[in-house]
Amino acid sequence: MTAGKNSDAQLEPSFILRPIVGLVECLPKVDLEQITIEAIKTHRRLRDIAEERYEAWRTGSSSNGETAGPARIAYVTAMIDVHAQQTVLSTLLEVLGHIPLVPKT
């Protein structure tokens, strides 16, 4: 199997950020839950920004052939932020052991 390709029988391995585990594993669960809730809110905010930037790229002008253009670069950068935050969030959820309730704002 090549990197990035999965068969139906295999799941992509989860990525755990060991430095974050070290920082939070000894915290009281109530504190870890609050940190995780804030990480969920951050992830939602970054997702919303990425969606806005996607729309701007999709409806905006295209590239000039030499560059992808500022709208696409903004979208790609926003998606990198979303994926990075997802890794942080996944790590926190793994340590916490459950998904806390987070009101939609």
Strand content: under 5%
Shape: elongated
The H-and-E topology, N to C, reads as: HHH
Q: How many alpha or pi helices? A: 3
Q: What is the CATH topology descriptor of the domain at 28-96?
A: Helix Hairpins
Task: Summarize the biggest pleated sheet.
Answer: none
Ends distance? 42 Å
| Total count of strands | 0
Specify the helix fraction band. Answer: 55-70%
Write down the CATH class of the domain at 28-96: Mainly Alpha
CA radius of gyration: 17 Å
Which spans have pLDDT < 50 for at least 5 consecutive residues?
1-9
Based on secondary structure, the structural category is: mainly alpha
Average pLDDT confidence is 88
Per-chain topology:
Blueprint: H1 18-24, H2 29-59, H3 70-96
Quick overview:
The chain is elongated, with a radius of gyration of 17 Å. Helix 1 packs across helix 3.
From the structure above, extract its key features:
mainly alpha, elongated, 0% strand, 105 residues, disordered N terminus, single chain, 62% helix
Please give a structural write-up.
- The protein is mainly alpha-helical.
- It has a domain of 69 residues: HR1 repeat (Helix Hairpins, Orthogonal Bundle), CATH 1.10.287.160.
- It is built from 3 helices and no strands.
- α1 crosses α3 and α2 runs antiparallel to α3.
- The longest helix has 31 residues.
- The relative contact order is 0.18.
- The N terminus is likely disordered.
